[in-house]
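Long-time lurker, finally posting.

We've been working with EAL domain-containing protein (Uliginosibacterium flavum) and I want a structural starting point before designing mutants. I don't trust myself to interpret raw outputs, so I'm hoping someone here can both generate the structure tokens and explain anything notable. Sequence follows.
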Amino acid sequence: AKSTQRGQLAWYTPEISRQTHDRVTLLTGLRTAMRAEGLFVVYQPQIALSDRRLIGLEALVRWRTESGEMIGPDRFIPVAEQSGLIREIGFFVLRRACSVLALLHGEGCQGLRMAVNVSAIQFRHPAFLAELRQIIGDSGIDPCCLELEITESIAMEDAVYVRETLDALHGMGIQLAVDDFGTGYSSLAQLKGMAVDRLKIDKAFVCDLDEAGADASIAGVVIQLGQRLGKEVIAEGVETEAQADLLKRMGCPEAQGYLFGRPMPLDDLRAWIRRSRA
Ligand code: C2E
Ligand code: CA
Ligand code: CA
Ligand code: CA
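Top reply, 14 upvotes:
Generated this for you. Predicted structure of EAL domain-containing protein:
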């Protein structure tokens, strides 16, 4: 028994310390990147399925390390959340996204919407509203054109502080979307009272779509739910014409995905906008 125990220890310890080491390395790199402009923001088009015109953008953060390696947000956002660095990153993205939106509004994209992901940790912080107001004020954008993508758990939370924050955001005219909708555990009863404007169908349900199972698909259910509850619906991760066509026929008004446009830096986005107008 003793040798087994020792064997387990010998197996677990290096594994855990390797993970800790990775996290510390990642965190140190992230802090440096924050200072050295290693973090930047890309923008992905959101379109109306009826005529494919551009209606919005989603801001997504990117990290290029000093050695040129790209590290995806799925890898560094969780680490940033554990350390609190997520607030700094989140406000960096918000600030950038709002100023780019102001720029695009001035270049003929009146009414264009900008969606920004907000981590639960950033959202729950007592200074969140004040910092957000500051950023909106500095950029000069109309808050009605800003949308915050929040998690299902935040949208459902009944803590007084969270409810008040959601109300205040609505009061400012800011739109709220539930990201990755359908992947959480909210009940139908909770859904009804949910103070959000838009449900975002997760790409996992979009890539599952096919003609045969369309009626029973989760995407179809979310679209109908949105119609019943008076919420807008957008589908993410649309990669094929078949998916776009099916979503449109199911009554989904808006979509986002590689089929229409990849997440792009500002200059590429401008070229994309020029092409889409031509
Ligand atoms: P998300 O918010 O669900 O974002 C959608 C992800 O799907 C993005 O990955 C996007 O690049 C990718 N995507 C877009 N269209 C397609 C498509 O047609 N097919 C496929 N397969 N994928 C597509 P990305 O940029 O790697 O971001 C991953 C996640 O990291 C995001 O998931 C979001 O949860 C988080 N994230 C990204 N930027 C931020 C940020 O500024 N703040 C916070 N808190 N989280 C962020
Ligand atoms: Ca999102
Ligand atoms: Ca998603
Ligand atoms: Ca996500």
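Before you design anything, note these points.
The chain has twelve helices and nine strands.
The two ends are 74 Å apart (CA to CA).
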